[in-house]
């Protein structure tokens, strides 16, 4: 009975101080695409990503009932930093769902920093929200919504407060757990040495035992689920450098295998530039690309499980082969074109004497096309798509069937894979160049390629552009096959990697190439339109269907 009464009391007190409207809640995930369009349309930074913000400590005074219920300690904040516009993961401030949607749009208008208050539509949206807010809070005179940081000002009492300071930029030398995408405020302090006794002991410290949680990755590689949950509940995460070393532990760099077991390098490496979006300039010779041959590659016949689909694709793609066709109305040729000759005689009688085009000739109608396929062989391809195959197995099959199809069309093509370990070790796997024959040796290279490391996409695209640019064909297709966004061990994450890749693709387009991306990443819509354009990429939802769909996509991309 006592437990039941306590539960009812808690529900009543909490409900009495809760001013949101769950039935009208709008989630950020449902609005993300619309908000992205609005942000770009208002001239906002095209590189900004819309991300969910986290609850922060509220500085607004709490009422007596809030203190009893234990609520009002945190509030949803929104801010903009260099990489993203951070908005609440949901809004239920108004009883009407449409008004909560309007509030998301208003926050995005503020985030665009386009000075849009001069427009009538923007003013009317603000006035509509203000009127609805005043109905709920008659004492209010304005909406307490500010996107600019105000470090010393208290937050407004609304659950969606934009007067909170923006969180500091993350320290590049610190390491955060990859399992969480939340953003927390942080500060740096000295590591407590435990020698202060109880002089600074406070009773509330009993309830904050996780204030200092050991997460030093240099001495402990184990997971700590309790620490992760505790970090999610913290308003401020305090980071300290522990100078202690781990005695009886040896940490080895296992990123690269011994040279005896690694792939075979083909030279000293090629220096390549990289775009730094922070400095807004191209860094010359910033990366080094190493061309590699897969170790252990041997001449192999076409794998048995691919022989039947390869025959079907070859028959289908043979229809795209260059054909010999008669061309009329030519200046010279093998035969006289009777119709053109009669027309020429008629025009000559009228005094219209032109160069006689009175012959016909049988000529081969070539496609004049070159394609370079660049496949992502990062460590993520070692994951499983089903109980029978990994992503890398599917990619290998796709490369072989793709090559079988293009061999039937007689189009010039090249196959390469790539991965990376920092900027000085971008690895390009040589599978087939434009001038090599497609044979058992190529089969062996493809089947010997193993999942690599990370995905420094910009450098690989720049070198592929250089190879494809040297082709004499009129049409040049750069086809990228990937399962995720650009990333690497260093700063090549988030916006930095995306912007470098985008600049590399722009360089390719300026040189007359046509880039196109085929991906199996379910989150590709968040970043690929920014890189390849809305019509420059396609998602294969079932990875196991990639070997059959890749040749079909090529046929659609190269049809006349």
Keywords:
alpha/beta; about 550 residues; extended; three-stranded mixed β-sheet; Rossmann fold
Description of the structure:
By secondary structure, the protein is an alpha/beta fold. It folds into four domains: 2-161, no CATH class; 185-239, no CATH class; 268-318 and 367-558, von Willebrand factor, type A domain (Rossmann fold), CATH 3.40.50; 323-365, no CATH class. Helix content is 32%, strand content 20%. The protein has 14 helices and 22 strands. Strands 11, 12, 13, 17, 18, 19, 20, 21 and 22 form a nine-stranded mixed beta sheet that branches. A three-stranded mixed beta sheet has the order 2-6-5, with helices on one face. Helix 4 (97-112) crosses helix 5 (120-136). The termini are far apart.
Task: Kindly state the percentage of residues in helix.
Answer: 25-40%
Proportion of beta-strand residues? 15-25%
CATH superfamily name of the largest domain?
A: von Willebrand factor, type A domain
Q: What would you say the CATH architecture of the largest domain is?
A: 3-Layer(aba) Sandwich
**CATH fold assignment of the largest domain:** Rossmann fold
Tell me the span between the first and last alpha carbons: 79 Å
Shape: extended
- Average predicted local confidence, pLDDT: 78
Low-pLDDT runs: 145-181, 194-212, 216-225, 243-254
The CATH first-level class of the largest domain comes to: Alpha Beta
């Amino acid at each position: 009975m006592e437990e039941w009464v306590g539960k009812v009391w808690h529900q009543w007190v909490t409900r009495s101080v809760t001013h949101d409207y769950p039935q009208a809640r709008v989630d950020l995930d449902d609005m993300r695409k619309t908000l992205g369009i609005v942000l770009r349309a208002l001239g906002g930074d095209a590189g900004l990503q819309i991300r969910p913000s986290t609850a922060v400590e509220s500085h607004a005074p709490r009422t007596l009932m809030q203190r009893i219920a234990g609520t009002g300690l945190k509030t949803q904040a929104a801010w903009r930093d260099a990489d993203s516009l951070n908005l609440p993961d949901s809004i239920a401030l108004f009883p009407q769902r449409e008004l909560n949607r309007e509030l998301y749009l208003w926050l995005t208008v503020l985030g665009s920093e386009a000075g849009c208050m001069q427009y009538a539509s923007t003013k009317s949206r603000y006035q509509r929200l203000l009127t609805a807010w005043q109905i709920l809070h008659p004492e209010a005179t304005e909406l307490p919504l500010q996107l600019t940081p105000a470090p010393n000002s208290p937050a407004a009492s609304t659950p969606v407060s934009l007067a909170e300071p923006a969180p500091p930029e993350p320290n590049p030398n610190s390491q955060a757990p990859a399992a969480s995408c939340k953003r927390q405020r942080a500060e740096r302090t000295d590591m407590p040495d435990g020698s202060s006794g109880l002089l600074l002991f406070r009773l509330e410290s009993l309830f904050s035992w996780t204030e200092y949680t050991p997460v030093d990755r240099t001495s402990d590689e184990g997971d700590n689920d309790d620490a992760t949950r505790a970090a999610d509940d913290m308003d401020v995460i305090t980071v300290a450098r522990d100078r202690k070393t781990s005695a009886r532990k040896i940490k080895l760099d296992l990123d690269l295998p011994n040279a005896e077991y690694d792939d075979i390098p083909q030279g000293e490496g090629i220096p390549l530039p990289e775009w730094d979006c922070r400095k807004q300039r191209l860094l010359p010779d910033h990366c080094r690309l190493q061309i590699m041959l897969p170790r252990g590659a041997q001449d192999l016949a076409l794998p048995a499980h691919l022989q039947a689909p390869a025959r079907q694709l070859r028959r289908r793609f043979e229809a795209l082969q260059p054909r010999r066709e008669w061309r009329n109305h030519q200046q010279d040729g093998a035969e006289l074109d009777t119709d053109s000759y009669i027309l020429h005689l008629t025009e000559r009688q009228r005094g219209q004497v032109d160069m006689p085009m009175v012959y016909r000739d049988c000529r081969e109608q070539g496609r004049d096309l070159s394609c370079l396929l660049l496949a992502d062989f990062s460590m993520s391809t070692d994951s499983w798509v089903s109980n029978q195959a990994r992503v890398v197995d599917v990619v290998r099959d796709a490369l072989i069937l793709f090559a079988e199809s293009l061999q039937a069309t007689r189009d010039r093509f090249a196959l390469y894979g790539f991965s990376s370990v920092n900027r000085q070790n971008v690895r390009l796997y040589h599978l087939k160049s434009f001038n090599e024959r497609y044979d058992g040796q190529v089969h062996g290279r493809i089947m010997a390629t193993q999942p690599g490391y990370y995905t420094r996409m910009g450098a690989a695209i720049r070198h592929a552009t250089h190879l494809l640019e040297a082709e004499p064909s009129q049409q040049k297709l750069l086809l990228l096959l990937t399962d995720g966004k650009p990333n690497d061990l260093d700063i090549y994450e988030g916006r930095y990697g995306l912007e470098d890749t985008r600049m590399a693709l722009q360089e390719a387009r300026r040189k007359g190439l046509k880039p196109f991306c085929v991906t199996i990443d379910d989150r590709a819509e968040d970043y690929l339109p920014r890189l390849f354009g809305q019509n420059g990429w396609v998602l294969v939802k079932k990875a196991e269907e990639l070997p059959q769909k890749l040749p079909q996509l090529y046929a659609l991309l190269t049809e006349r």
